Amino acid sequence: MDPFEPARAPSLLANPSAEPEAFVVVVGPDRLHFLDWGGPGGAAGAEGAAEMPAGRPGVLLVHGLASTAWSWTPVARRLRAVAHVVAMDLRGHGLSDSPTEGYDPDGLAEDVEAVAEGSGLLGSGSDGSPTALILAGHGFGGVVAAWAAARLGDRCAGLVLVDGGWTDLAAETGMEPDEWLRAIEEPPEVLRSMAAFLADRAGFDPASWDPDAERAARASVVEVPAGHLVPAIRPHALARSVEALFAYRPATVLPSIEAPIVALVSSDPEGREALPAAQAALVAAGRSPARVVDLGPAGHNLLRYRPDAVSGAIAELAAATMKR
Q1: Beta-carbon contacts of residue 160 (< 8 Å; ≥ 6 apart)
Q2: Which of 117, 202, 236, 297 is the 20 to 30 A CA-CA neighbour of 275?
Q3: Using CA atoms, how far apart are residues 116 and 126, in angstroms rounded to an integer?
């Protein structure tokens, strides 16, 4: 593996007052929602986003399973200082439509491409040359981003896998999708009220719990009239998304990606050694050299727990693509 030095990554300051603009793009009969955080020197928005210098890639952020675009807020606040940044809601998630179809690899990759084009991340630069973008995905979003990177070819300048995207979940767990779904269900006591849910989420890492983390948590659930919560994602969309996750074969997908890959790895707080597994998976997939960043026992939600490291790695990859 080509070593990655976190100290080389640029230090980016978060803008605590920045807010994105919300847009939708239509794919067939379905609407996909995305947040446009804008970029250096300009306002957010698909029509009014800052014009990037020729060769500077924008960044499209893809959230994890049963999450939303708001989960990327800590990273987007930092990255918008150096790039045009967009975070999307996958189909069935957030404010995107929840159709019964389209959760297959081709459909999900097409959704990413549509948001990239609709937001202006893919198009023409200030000199008329075609633009490329950096894709970053968290968990299940890493899988979707990998499918999209393969689809985009040379229009993808780089791929960042944030604690996901290198695992064959079916082979690793030996489970069926519905069995795995039952294993990850929220306990009833966590969903008994919004207060209980937010307290549970704050307890994961009190130091990183702030209004952005609370907004991301609230966006992932719906409070019913009886007072308890249900996941915001519809059951059919969750089931179809998990089926797609279990169909992912990194040994097939990763070698087909033309762009450089960076993997950001979190070791399990209970001692699981994730780094060797990620390195071995990328090597087995023919993606050596690739950069692998060990962020230690930080937990899965690196967007919240390690935003400096995640945004720095994405920015460093974007800068490297401009030098090639």
Answers
A1: 134, 135, 136, 137, 145, 261, 262, 263, 264, 310, 313, 314, 317
A2: 202
A3: 17
Average pLDDT score, the chain: 89
246 token code pair: 């279990």
Residue by residue, DSSP assigns 30-50 as EEEEEEEEEBTTBB-STTTBP
Rounded CA gap, 315 and 158, in Å?
11
Q: What is the secondary structure of 15-33 as a DSSP string?
A: -TT---EEEEEEETTEEEE
Distance of CA 45 to the CA centre of its chain: 20
| Structure tokens belonging to residue 197 | 């849910």
Percent of the chain predicted with pLDDT > 90: 74
pLDDT bucket at 272, cuts 50 / 70 / 90: low
Q: What is the mean pLDDT of residues 113-135?
A: 87
Whose CA is closest to 253, among 288, 278, 285? 285
Check residue 47 and give its pLDDT: 42
CB within 8 Å of 204: residues ≥ 6 apart:
299, 301
Residue type, 125: G
Query: Could you give phi then psi for residue 51, rounded to 5 degrees?
Result: -80, 120
> pTM for this structure?
0.92
Rg (CA), the chain: 18
